[in-house]
User: Fold these one by one.
Assistant:
Number 1:
Amino acid sequence: MWFMRRLHRDRAGFTLIELVIIIAVLGILAAVAIPRYVDMVSEAKKSSCKGALGGLRSAVSIYYANTALTTGTATWPPIASVRTIGVVMAHEIPKNPYQLSTSAPDSIVTGVTKGVIVGVRGGWAYLAATGEIWPNTNVAGESSF
């Protein structure tokens, strides 16, 4: 009889109730964590887009001011100059994080009116007449940045 008690005491494992409690706790954690993760991803895209847009706008403004100093007449850069590395931007055009990678998120197209999306190809829209530049997407309202 003593060997039966010892055999019963040495068994290792979880009971069904313990497993159900663990699964329930993991389910609750997942229900809380997943929406917060999705929210962080959208905030990261928004911040990345605003940062890239700020860099583009600064480069265009610096070009405008530089032409005023060197030629006496301030002019906004033509779109070809914005596309050319080393003329307006020292590096390549940053990617629009909202644009699909298959649709050239690092390209720039001629814009019509700020906030209006032009085609599906370009990550950014630029209006050379006014120097305005904006995201050429509107996934999360980013074309109003």
Number 2:
Amino acid sequence: MGRPTKAQAQGWTQSLLDEARALFCERGYASATLDELAVRLRCSKHSIYRRFADKQTLFVAVVDRDVIRFVAGLDSSCAAISDPLGRLRAVARAYFGFGASRDHAALYAAMSLEATTSAEIRLRASQWASEALVPLRSAIAAAMPWGDANEQCEILIDLLDGAANRLRLRDDFENDVEIVFSIRWNKFLRMCASESMDLR
């Protein structure tokens, strides 16, 4: 057999990242091993090492790809909306949907736990958070120009993340996602309206 084409090589790398992501979600960073990953992929560890120097490099690549997909999801959520407040609501709802996803939360938990002991992952986590929140901060700045977009973004995230964390603990929560989001969204709007009045 000849050497794989560039497209085949890229496809295999994506499969490797998919399987690595699943493993990190299931086992956490510390318990995941490249040996198990190789078994799952039915390949040698050498095949993995040819693409990624070590487990941390692989983990960073997995999360980098997730952040790109996360940002793309937030951007696409409001692509057809012209009203600034409507755009912000769409982005916030997409953010909440990611937060309520157990799959998304599992990778975030693995990253957060590793960040407590790894300075490298801690630095990366800060960079990932900054990149991931660009669409939300931009939408807030456009819809609510009177306030501090960074502060308003943090408040909105606190409202949404807390609710998403509680939702994921329930067995049957999918039907309540929209209701819970709407309650938090309306509370955020009231807080921002009050801030706007105070500034006048």
